[in-house]
Amino acid sequence: MLRPRKEVEIKKSFVPVFSEYGKSLILEIKKLFPYPVLLLGDTGWGKSVIAREIAKQLDLKFIPINGHPTMDMSMLVGLWRPVQTPNGITVEWQDGLLTTAIREGNMFLFEELTRASGEAVSRLFGVLDSSDRFLSLPEAGQINVPIHENFWCLATGNQAKSGYSASKLDKALESRFEAIYTIEQPLADESAILKNHPAIVDIDRFMHFVTDLRKSKDNVQFPTRELVRVARLTDKKIPLERALEMTLRSKYANNWEGIKELFNQHFMTSTTKVYI
User: Fold this and answer.
1) C-beta atoms surrounding 95 within 10 Å
2) What is the pLDDT of residues 217-253, one digit of tens each?
3) Do 62 and 8 contact (CB within 8 A), yes or no?
4) How far apart are CA 65 and CA 67, in angstroms?
């Protein structure tokens, strides 16, 4: 059963710091309002954070949902639910997250779109049209739900490749997005983020290591999410080399020896050797 909707509030305690690339992306995507936009790329670069920031800057309520192959359509469009009244139990229609965003003029973020079921994707076709947008709710007996002029649909997804349980985008769906961005670099100002983690003493050296790691033949993405995870582990008094191992070794098992070698090249001194 669909639970009563709770509006997603952007926590005041979390203030994202964006890179120049991230800032330019925000400015450009804002110009596309209210046309649908899709952000593709590896997990952890900050696609969802960008969407939240854009919603905040445009003063739009933010409603997200995660796509997956067995997702319940009632979460997306709505359902009939029993309601106790003075005259007994009756049923009333409760909008799902997408329907609510459409009626109220919110930003709707469909995360993990490339994992969503065909049924879920098909419900987006009319909603994503550039003109004459529409949503049919046969479940509620509503043929055409009016779409608020401020309704905006953004989506994120992983590209269909090794390591991701993602499907190739349906061409009919892909053609409905006004713009599709491929995110392959940090959207956050990572050096600024690391300043909030004093256990990483030499930020410049660490960022040089991260940059070289991303460019290495070992093909290690090491996205911002993993960088922050390493920083949080060091805050717990875990040595940097051990924090890296805890974060990266299982994901990049075949490349681990190369990662260790690169780390030692950056952090070895003439008097101190640090091996992981």
Assistant:
1) 19
2) 777 889 999 999 999 999 999 999 999 999 999 989 9
3) yes
4) 7
